[in-house]
Amino acid sequence: MVQKQNNEQAFWQFDRLRAARPRRRLCKLNLTVFVLLLVMLFGIAAFAYAMTEKKVELIDDGIVRTVATRANTVGDFLRQQDIMLGELDVVEPAEDAGLEDEAQVVIRRAFDVAVTADFQTKSYLTQPQTVRDFLAANNVTLGEHDWVSPALDHVLAKGENVVVNRITYRQTQVKEAIVPQTVRREDASMNVGQSKIIQEGKAGEKTITSLVTYKDGVPIAKQELSRAVTTEPVEKVMAVGTRRVISRGNKTYEYTDMLAMKASAYTHTGNNTASGTKPKAGYTVAVDPSVIPLGSMLYVDGYGYAKAEDTGGAITGNRIDLFFNSEQECLNWGVRTVRVYVLK
């Protein structure tokens, strides 16, 4: 009886084991499906996450780089990249603009420009703009004639500075003395070389008006506008002697001309002079009539008082031939240079 009960218990245990085995396989199958579904979900999530990432070309003050981001706006993108914008920095597109894949974000940084004017230099931040607009934006006023470098239409770039030179004009008047002229008046009552003042001169005065250009207070140019005589000068009058005289021995001779001439000598030929007179020693001389007219009274240094009465074939130009009584006297005279005075 006991044996029978044991057999029945063993059968029922075996039967339970057979019934439990399929349920264990079903649990394993459900776990595998669950893992596969989980992997698929992670994959889909990862793909969706990857699809939201954008590539953006960032140009910051000329430096170019490519950045991956999931920002939706330009402003979010800048904040994610810890990029700060200065007071006058400009970003394009604007910060509130949407950000697309393959977008380009450009940051133009403001730069310093130094302005030198009115003896001081100040720096201002600016974006590229004309010098005219830059000065107006920073309340730098310009006068009508001021010089500006670079030119007002020039577009400023990084590293450039602006210089403003203040240009002013002022009229000036200067008084100058007018030196009196000296007038010479011939006076036949006085010998050559003699002179005397008949009237003392007196300086006059003139006013010169000029336009002076000042650059930053320093004169750089002067233009004469007018000259006006305020006081007329009084001329100085001087009498100048015109009488020409020579003193030889105890006699004084007045002459009209003096010539330096080469003097030779000649003696009797048996012929009369070209004037038709008989030659006289110490008196008759031969000349070139084109230089000294025949009949002129002369005084020849070393020979004495004489008259131009004769001519000669070799006597041309500043030549003179002196008459002597003998050949020996002619030889003694030879040829020499003398002063010949044509007497009045």
TrEMBL record:
Keyword set includes Membrane: yes
Chain ranges of the G5 domain: 164-244
GO CC annotation: outer membrane
InterPro entries: 3D_dom, DUF348, G5_dom, Resuscitation_pf_RpfB, RlpA-like_sf
One Pfam family it belongs to: DUF348
GO terms for biological process, alphabetical: peptidoglycan turnover
PROSITE patterns assigned: G5
Keywords: Membrane, Signal, Transmembrane, Transmembrane helix
Transmembrane segments: 31-51
One Gene Ontology MF term: hydrolase activity, hydrolyzing O-glycosyl compounds
PANTHER family the record matches: CELL WALL-BINDING PROTEIN YOCH, RESUSCITATION-PROMOTING FACTOR RPFB
Protein name: DUF348 domain-containing protein
